[in-house]
């Protein structure tokens, strides 16, 4: 079966709004990258080898490492197709993470890391920044192949700065380079330096940005993506007519986590009660204060969406794939050893075989929801996404009839 290679037509020509959301988590981005590779391979079975995720999702949202993945999936190459196929992202991490987060093999590396965290970021970010600039070049936010939502946090004004394809249409000063956005959303405090840049509009106005990791604002950006669409519906954007802002039955959301350590039960109150600033910054190769606020951010979004979709009888439309059983080095955002990176790939592959889960709003832990596996849920989702795209291509006056063999 051949793909039409046409861009995804707006939801005017269908009943669903499709959203992909990718959490932050440093090197643990390998886990959702593995999931996305599987999903794209299923879409290719249905629609041809050229099928890409950006062809199927109305919005792709990502924070921190998820923001970088979002940019890679949606930035156009010279042929106007996505810069990266999903199956290339895992290899990108395996190749470049050891250079982004070089591991100090010195006997006194723990002490050196502590000193680094007290005097500046643990990593200078030079390799990461140049790598992102080389890959994304001069591509700007308004050039992505589908709508994107990438959060950052303005450290000067202490407020979130959200880069949204929808907002940039009316606010050209938000039309930043994808490279600058990706560097900013990945600038995790204590790990990588904050990022400063400026944008200009045609009238000569200048806007200055002083940004750090989007995980400070929304480590799980799924709710932000829904919010951006809801604002467009409220404003009367004809792309969404006649969808209502509170009709969650029209949203189909795939939210991918980067794993957490809930089962590990790493810390307890008796231990933490005696901690000072240094222990909160670094403890047993972790950064507890960073782990706490990013995980809290992710979980609050999951709690909210799980409850809302269930209350509105749309529970099957919200798919959250997350592993809460990480332990040891796998919990880190920067231990980029060959052994740990290989282990993260295996964690992603095993996660596909695990049952679909739902968060228990009392314990915060995942519980099996259905007998089906994440893998089977993604195969079903691929069918939904393919059908949505075909329907929109047929109905849209600007689309073209997809080639099929049935």
TrEMBL record:
Which top EC class is given? hydrolase
Where is the motif GXGXXG annotated in this sequence?
24-29
Keywords from the UniProt entry: Hydrolase, Lipid degradation, Lipid metabolism, Plant defense
Active-site residue numbers: 64 (nucleophile), 213 (proton acceptor)
Q: Where is this motif: DGA/G?
A: 213-215
Protein EC: 3.1.1.-
Q: What stretch of residues is annotated with the motif GXSXG?
A: 62-66
**What's this protein's function?**
Lipolytic acyl hydrolase (LAH).
- PANTHER family from the UniProt entry: PATATIN-LIKE PROTEIN 2, XYLOSE ISOMERASE
Homology family: Belongs to the patatin family.
Can you name this protein?
Patatin
Q: Which organism is it from?
A: Cardamine amara subsp. amara
